[in-house]
Amino acid sequence: MKKTLLWNSFSEVPKTYEALCREHLPRPIHDKVELENATEIVDFLAGHDLNADQEDYLDLLSDLIAEYEEEYFPIKTSKLGGLKALAFLLEENSLNATDLSRILGSDRTLGAKILRGERNLTVDHMKRLGRRFAVEPGLFIG
Questions:
Q1: Sequence-separated (6 or more) residues with CB below 8 Å from residue 142
Q2: CB of 75 within 8 A of CB of 85?
Q3: Is residue 50 a contact partner of residue 14, using CB atoms and an 8 Å limit?
Q4: Which of 4, 23, 52, 90 could pair with 95 in a Cys bridge, judged by C-beta atoms 3.0 to 4.6 Å apart?
């Protein structure tokens, strides 16, 4: 059963790992609904200034998502360049350039500039994207 997002604003997000687990217990993902629920939480948390417990929670959910997606939706990256891989991941997750800017923790225009090839991803950007999409940050090089 699809859940709706647990919080309306970031200020409502629990501050401790234990409290986060009480609201949504991280478990291995078995189907698309569980995948959507976990992805919705990761999307909501990504791009915010998280404390250590929130970071740990986000990392675990991202790992669980990656594990499921690697098994059921493998990405063949050998022929993808960094920008094409990013565009593919954004499309697969129904995200746009503004969402990319939010994930990168930047102003609204950065995502569009990156997707048009006007700006390059920084190492920090690649790490954020790797964590958000549960892939190796090196995927976005080149």
A1: 81, 82
A2: yes
A3: no
A4: 90
Q: Where are the domains of the chain?
A: 1-74, 78-142
Output the six-digit token pair for 120. Answer: 């390059």
Distances from the Cα of 115 to the Cαs of 40, 41, 112, 120, in angstroms? 23, 24, 5, 9
Angle ∠(61,12,90) on CA atoms, nearest 5 = 45
- Level-2 CATH architecture, domain 78-142: Orthogonal Bundle (1.10)
Q: What would you measure as the largest C-alpha separation in the chain, in angstroms?
A: 43
For residue 20, pLDDT beyond 70: yes
* Sole residue written with tokens 């500039």: 113
- What is the model's pTM? 0.58
